[in-house]
Amino acid sequence: MALATTENTTTSSSGRADDTRDRRFGPAVALSCRECGARYDLGPDFACSECFGPLEIAYDFGRVTREQIAEGPTNIWRYRSLLPVPEDVASKPNMAPGWTKLVNAGNLARELGIRSLHVKDDSGNPTHSFKDRVVAIAVEAARNFGFHTLSCSSTGNLAGAVTAAAARAGLDACVFIPSDLEQAKIVMASVYGGRLIGIEGTYDDVNRFCSELIGDELGDQWGFVNVNLRPYYAEGSKTLAYEIAEQLGWRIPDQIVIPVASGSQLTKVDKGFKELIRLGLVEDRPYKIFAAQAEGCSPVSAAYKAGHDVIRPVKPDTIAKSLAIGNPADGPYVLDIARRTGGAVEDVTDAEIVDAIRLLARTEGIFAETAGGVVVGVLRKLVASGTLDPDAETVILNTGDGLKTLDAVAAEARPTAVIRPSLDAFRAAIA
Ligand SMILES: Cc1ncc(COP(=O)(O)O)c(C=O)c1O
Ligand SMILES: [Zn+2]
User: N or C of the chain: less Cβ packing under 10 Å?
Assistant: First the structure.
């Protein structure tokens, strides 16, 4: 990993064409350390060799206008000028995720006593979770670095997004999950081909194993989307912020509730909003970010409530398996963002998650997976405690599809009645 010099990157905003920037990465100019600010050339690197802090992408955006963006396709590539991808990215085989619905959730708002509420429904993505966004950027990085195999450690949704994207891109796939995941997630991760390895242990064990594999010749030329490609991958979540703002008429909402596993999504939504403000694409006004966890895996919420800056890892025990990361890499940044923006971190029990899945389904016709249940449950709790302003414009994320976690609500699912096909029988049944 080479420290970047000023000769091969530019920090000007002129967007000039004569620099020596690597055009495969679009407006990205370097990797920069989130802790000490050290800059490195763009490569498959994820940790600072000076201080071991996480690396993220630094850009020289030049001029970006709303009109330019509006001319783009109705998927995440409309924001390609804000992502580490080449200009022609949309023409390559890819899953083209994004531009999911922002649903005006008036029924749920009325039920909870909120004035204005939208659900950003990412269950509409190609493999039915927001993970298609992050993987789309990671695939481009894998191509750029010449990797032949796409891989990941996953709590379920990412594994499906990776095997699907690899199939479409013509890459091999080998993905790793805890062996006790929901059946639908196992089916999705295996149906697209590639190898699916179940590991006996938690997600944190899976992740540790993948870090070992990266250092071994077995994993040579492999792009682990959420490890050695993490700086690129993570940028995909910024598109949630861009889409929400554009779909609201180029406005950032007053407050937003986001589920947290590793915390990457939440930190990148914040980065996305800040970029829109800096580029003058939206008005500069305050917004609050609220983080949502399941009580059975709530290390960030526990630290927030205790007033700590350090997050103590936990062993997960919750039905919200997609959020079951006991040692979240971006946890400290989530704490910072919640505190800095005037938001909060809250958690809900498994029973509250199931209730919330049913509430969203019966009020808005949206069937969320357990992660969405966590968000709606936390929203309800934050309103009840007066922590979230019911008069402010609110957006919540539904990051995955309820069909992936049917077991969560299966116990109470049955026909209202089973009858003979006769009017009399029906009359009796509904009396
Ligand atoms: C459906 C769903 N929502 C939210 C998350 C949390 O994402 P992050 O790890 O970026 O916090 C995940 C992570 O796997 C997920 O699968
Ligand atoms: Zn550093």
Answer: C
Two tokens, residue 37: 């600010």
**pLDDT, tens digit, 9 for 90 and up, residues 295-319:** 999 999 999 999 999 999 999 999 9
Q: Which residue has the tokens 């609201």?
A: 248
265 lines ligand 1 (CB under 6 A): yes
Q: Which of 131, 181, 311 to mutate to test the pocket of ligand 1 (most atoms within 8 A of CB)?
A: 131
Terminal CA-to-CA distance of the chain, rounded, Å? 73
Residue with tokens 């249940």: 373
**Residues 126-148: pLDDT tens digits?**
999 999 999 999 999 999 999 99
Q: Is 263 in the pocket of ligand 1 (CB under 6 A)?
A: yes
pLDDT above 60 (res 21): yes
Triad 160, 268, 105: Cα angle to 5°: 75
Task: For ligand 1, atom 16, name the residue with the nearest CA.
Answer: 322
Q: How far is the CA of 57 from the centre of ligand 2 (A)?
A: 13
- If one compares 380 and 21, the residue with the highest pLDDT of the two is 380
Q: What ranges make up the beta strands (E) of 137-221?
A: 149-153, 172-178, 195-199
Q: CA-CA distance, 190 to 168, in Å (whole number)?
A: 14
Interval between CA 49 and ligand 2 midpoint (Å): 7
Q: Is the CB of 81 under 6 A from ligand 1?
A: no
Distance CA 168, CA 171 (A): 8
Structure tokens at 393: 């414009």
CA nearest neighbour of 28 among 143, 146, 141 = 141
In this prediction, residue 4 has a pLDDT band, given cuts at 50, 70 and 90, of low
Atom 9 (ligand 1) nearest CA: 262
Of all ligands present, the nearest one to the C-alpha of 325 is 1
Nearest-angstrom CA–CA distance, 10 and 59? 9
**Is the CB of 125 within 6 Å of ligand 1?**
no
Ligand 1 contact via 371 beta carbon (within 6 Å): yes
- Whole-number Å distance between alpha carbons of 377 and 351: 10
**46 burial via Cβ count (<10 Å: 0-12, 13-18, 19+):** buried
